[in-house]
């Protein structure tokens, strides 16, 4: 389970640290930084897949994703005595991302490249990275670090440092090259976990959505990110997962309705008062979305962390309570971070279980959180 998340210099997240629990909901007014926080988690996962630099480029490059305000907002700027203006930089341009789990922590610092003869002069570079044991990075807890092209690993038994790489490309994370079963076993474990964080933010429910069509199904323990293999994913839960909980959550949400999966993996729903089951093509957007969320959340192969962006979109308000119950059930099997716009869902979650509600707000352009106790955090130094 992740216990802390830290982001610095990314969009409106000038310096955000969040303590996490098993079930977290992040909420706020429009434009306060929910999507940026979601993207920051995604970037961390992409780093472990070697795709973060390209992903940053697709967002407009480092220049556009970096915090656009001054390095420090002084008290006089906040009180209006001085205009908000840039001051002479005391530190380098940097975008930092990190998290701590119960066992390991990881942090990365991305920056601008050193000018050289290349057409890729805009590519951000990985400047430093660290992996440590426990909650906080420190001299005694760090066991892998990267500074520019050099990577060292510490032998966990003898405590001796050993050079592992001296020419790591600036566009690669050390997770890509130093994680192997012999030398970097812990890095390998951590990398696989980060790669497996599961993100859902564009489950398709439109008329042409593939989830509405019959298809050739194969065993699907993990629903695709667009939900295209819904029938196969539901049938997999029925066969090797928690079929009872699946039927219970459908009955809970739709007044005793039952679900079945047809010959060609088309989803069918039997509802009270109807003579025949309704096919996926006939279901309302909200109903289909609920089925997609059930398939994602009751996956027979739960990840360490699942992140849902605005799951309540297009759901009828009456479905928010059942959705909250479904989320609580799922959070007993994997850690959940839910980004939500809907106060009713946040309240339902708060009522249903121990939920960590994290409210974001914006002040002077920067995102601040409602958490009273900001968790300690140390960034690796350049
Ligand atoms: N480089 C930047 N520096 C500072 N602020 C930025 C930067 N890029 C975007 N922003 C601002 O950050 C804010 C947060 O954006 P984000 O998309 O995360 O909001 P949100 O909470 O998801 O909003 P919504 O509820 O509308 O989806 C926006 O107001 C945006 O204008
Ligand atoms: Mg958003």
Could you please describe the fold and organization of this structure?
- This protein has 382 residues and is α+β, with helices and mostly antiparallel strands.
- The chain folds into two domains: 2-197 and 361-369; 206-284, no CATH class.
- It is 27% helix and 26% strand.
- The strands form three sheets. The chain has an eight-stranded antiparallel beta sheet, with helices on one face.
- Helix 8 runs antiparallel to helix 9 and helix 9 (285-297) runs parallel beside helix 10.
- The two termini are 28 Å apart.
- Bound molecules: adenosine-5'-triphosphate (ATP) and magnesium ion (MG).
- The site of magnesium ion (MG) has 2 residues, from helix 1.
Question: What's the topology here?
Answer:
Layout: E1 2-10, E2 13-19, E3 23-28, H1 34-47, H2 52-58, H3 61-65, H4 75-79, E4 95-101, E5 104-111, E6 125-133, E7 142-147, E8 150-154, E9 161-165, H5 174-177, H6 185-195, E10 198-200, H7 230-240, H8 243-253, E11 258-261, E12 267-270, E13 278-279, H9 285-297, E14 305-309, H10 320-331, E15 335-340, H11 343-352, E16 356-363, E17 366-369
Parallel strand pairs: 3-15, 3-16, 10-14, 14-15
Antiparallel strand pairs: 1-2, 1-4, 4-5, 5-6, 6-7, 7-8, 8-9, 11-12, 12-13, 16-17
The structure holds adenosine-5'-triphosphate (ATP) and magnesium ion (MG).
Adenosine-5'-triphosphate is lined by residues 11-12, 28, 30-36, 65-69, 341, 365.
Compose a concise summary of this entry.
By secondary structure, the protein is an alpha+beta fold. Helix content is 27%, strand content 26%. Helix 7 packs across helix 9 (285-297).
